[in-house]
Amino acid sequence: MTDYDRRIVDLYDDENPDGPDHDRYRKIADDHGARAILDVGCGTGILTVTLAREGRSIVGVDPSPAMLAFARARPGGDEVEWVEGDASAAPMQPVDLAIMTGNVAQHIPDADWPRTLGAIRARMGRGGILAFESRNPAARAWEAWAAEGETSRESVHGPLVEWMDVERADGRVVRLAARTRFVDAAETVTTTLALTFRSRAELERDLARAGFAVETVHGGWHDEPLTDAARIMLVVARAR
């Protein structure tokens, strides 16, 4: 993969702060008494480090060297084992909880999705938990993104102007070009993404094929029902 510009990594936590989503994943870990956790697509590790505690092992996996460098340097970073790569790069030591946060599941293309689920299942005994969220395609988030236009803000790298070009390539994949203009440097950085919007039925089918049984699918971080208006689908599945 083409790695992120380091300035974009520096901005990540401000754009994706600790909040109710992280609270929910911490609660899932506590409710299931997780002793070994795998965070797939851990990014800067903002959530990962908060899962660490005595008697619990944490592995954070991400394909971005720049993200992992930031994660290792953050407070609490030495409490986590950081691994560069995808789920298949994680140690084969068994885990009882795997998470994919920040809509990471949508960044994994169809060609790699079954392999990712299989790699997680291979590191988990019967009864282990996989929890992740994915944007609800019925809410059509890409329409709001396309209508946003330019926005401006201050940052650690000075004033920024940001905008997004959105292309819905087909019924399931949305391609984005997120552009950040660093005003003081007179430079624009473009981050390209392809997000796969899988339906609930697709997710349940794929999880079943990988050896998981879906236990719950909620439309929010507080057990809201999944409706067409719900922005996310929070999935909790158990290894069979």
From TrEMBL:
<feature type="compositionally biased region" description="Basic and acidic residues">
    <location>
        <begin position="1"/>
        <end position="10"/>
    </location>
</feature>
<dbReference type="InterPro" id="IPR041698">
    <property type="entry name" value="Methyltransf_25"/>
</dbReference>
<dbReference type="Pfam" id="PF13649">
    <property type="entry name" value="Methyltransf_25"/>
</dbReference>
<dbReference type="InterPro" id="IPR029063">
    <property type="entry name" value="SAM-dependent_MTases_sf"/>
</dbReference>
<feature type="domain" description="Methyltransferase">
    <location>
        <begin position="37"/>
        <end position="128"/>
    </location>
</feature>
<protein>
    <submittedName>
        <fullName>Class I SAM-dependent methyltransferase</fullName>
    </submittedName>
</protein>
<dbReference type="GO" id="GO:0008168">
    <property type="term" value="F:methyltransferase activity"/>
</dbReference>
<dbReference type="GO" id="GO:0032259">
    <property type="term" value="P:methylation"/>
</dbReference>
<feature type="region of interest" description="Disordered">
    <location>
        <begin position="1"/>
        <end position="22"/>
    </location>
</feature>
<keyword id="KW-0808">Transferase</keyword>
<keyword id="KW-0489">Methyltransferase</keyword>
